[in-house]
What does this fold into?
Amino acid sequence: MTLPGAAGLDLKHLIDHGLIATTESGAIADKDNRRVIAVEKDSLAVLELQRSFPGLKILQSDIYSRLHGSSPIVFPTGQGKDPFIAAVINLDFNDSFLFRNGVFPILEAVVKIATLQTAQSPPYDWTLLLTVQGEVRWPGDTQLAAQRFLAEQCTLCPPYDQGCKRLFGDPLYGRINAEPPVAMHICERVDQQHILMAFVPAQIIRRVYTMGWRVEVTHNLRYGGEAGNTAPMATWIMDFVRDPRAASTPHTVLTDGLGTVLQGAGRVTEDGDLVLL
It folds into this structure.
């Protein structure tokens, strides 16, 4: 399942690498037209996708609506849940990691998808690709709560703590671990991206390990924002792996996941080069 946008660059890559077969006319082959489902709410983007990828299954809808919002007790059922039971989920958002109505909607969407995956019999390992704008626009009390959350994870998991020290640098790391709230929204753009790189996957790990998922963060990258003419972005690849230890030693599953958050942290340069931090 993917949120491809009008350009559908991820779909083009899948086709170019032979993962999705096409006919001589360029349409997606019948045998593969169920391998990928696109969710797109913008009608013009839907038309562009239909033109570029004939045969692609497209659900014209908002992903939050398909998940029935952030409610922890209302979920899609029947065929409505099918798009979220996939080996790969690509959530490429144009939004920042916003805090709204007492929750982070993007976080709640990921947790609901993980819950749907857990309910399968048996549940299978799956991979999440997540991209958000790398800006922090949270109210002061949310910033303070995020700061305390980061500090607590540093205490729980030494590899995570070491990664934060390396990623943030001494000044920001010291401010994160101090009580006065950090005015994250006026930090440098790079610092805001770094905060999200540490915060978002750790939040996901904390929310899903009790479901039996060990999350391994294989890529944790930032890009854009440095030249002033591109939006700052943060992006992750996370593997959700079933771990039977969650029933007996859940803390181990939690800290193992946290230890992977910043192991592959890096940035993508304007030239497309990958630089590990």
